[in-house]
Amino acid sequence: MADWNKDQWGVQQERGYPPLHALGGEPKPGHSEPYAQPVFQSQYDPQSSVNRNTPFEDGRFQPKKRVNDIFFLILFILQFAAFSALSGIALSGYVSDNGLGGGVGNGFQVGSSVTLNRHTAYLLLFVTAAALVLSIAFLVLARIYTRALMHITLALSIILNIAICVYYWTTGYYSGAIIFTIIALFSIFAYLGFRSRIPLASLLLQVVMDVSKHHKSVYVVAFIALILQAVLSVWFSYTLIAIYTKWTPRNPNCGNGTSCSGSTVAGLVFYAVFSYLWTSQVIGNVALATLAGGVYGSWYYFGPREQGQMPKHPTLGAFGRASTFSLGSIAFGSLIVTILEIVRIILNAARNNANAQGSFVEACLACCAEFFVGCIEGVVKYFNRYAYIEIALYGKPYIKAAKDTWTMFVDRGIDALVNDSLVGMALMWGAYTIGLLCSLFGYLYLRLTHPAYNADGQYTAPVVLFAFLIGLQCSITMSTAIEAGVSTIFVGLGEDPQVLAVRAPDLFELIALTYPRVVQGVPRV
Q: 483 and 424 in contact (C-beta within 8 Å)?
């Protein structure tokens, strides 16, 4: 494929970018003006491929109108209704007690010393606002510094692992130090292998950015999802504080027939966190399915909007399918990830407790188990993303989508998907960075305002954890706008690889040169 469309990337040579062959297979991606234009390749005949495989093949974009995985849809609705009822009961007591006092700042506004109060609610409200701003800022930086973002992400992940390793060794936390020493060594060796894959990952990410530039609905969906995530986070924050206010022993409500105990608070907080994580996962995954089955899927299979074949308002149609017929399937996959997150949080608490008691063996076992569960969670999240795209395009139930996703993985090879992992790594690093910044903000706010309920520092850990979760979930929701595009392109490659030769010739050529197995496609059965 010695020839490709020079206009696909905004006339790269005119902008100072040499042709692909002069870079040894390492292109410098630029903007696409126009972002997709038909081109005939010598090796493939894209036009004939498009004629053989219509965009509506196998029910694509026209799924059967039936509700899939209805059991998990009902379960999701029930848990959300239960959270709403719990929130209503807790918030009614919170309002009647004036939130046990507290406010913005310190001094006379710190409120009751019994438990969390309005001071914490305002703190988490500020954390949510910070998460909104930081998430949008990270998306803008990813658009401007696409290639540099990959290198920075890999380097920072290594630095972070080494820093944690050194900290644990110096503080005598040997169980965690051993685990992170292994992780740090692995990340260093992995970086040597990942460096050669950065050019393709950068070009892939640039294609997604260029498509999103021509379809503003991508950012509309991402922003609406982020706002919903922020609203849910604020609601969760106030509910959390209200639970502490109403059921913590020695608070004013305990004498009014309210069963107050530490176990009651722990159980209700556990459920509130579970509900928050599951609902948050569903919001982000509905956004992902909306974008994959809407703009990105339509761009890949129908071509750009200017060619006149793309359906009108594809985003609205995809959202309608994702929020009705496929909502149960999305809730099913999201529940699996939520359970793994809850298990990891429990193991983290067990590790901290064992470490505080000086139990080295128990702390080491909990740390190993937490790391193992975290790895499984990462694989499931990665796998689910492609299952959701199958759900968005074909309206499949979750199990069927998962099986077809596994078939695609086996046929194409996991190594071919590592570039998507690099993109996901960059976005996940941004999410964790935003989560860490939000937790740091929460920690500094507690230190500077000196609330009465935290005189002995007993509430520092949970407040910092809640701040981290809010920042992390908001950022993950925003990054869905990018992840949906990258993953949709890979699914399209698995089904009709020649179509990409029409949409983005440079990207297709680099993929064909680097991973020839990828362009073979997945056999239909």
A: yes
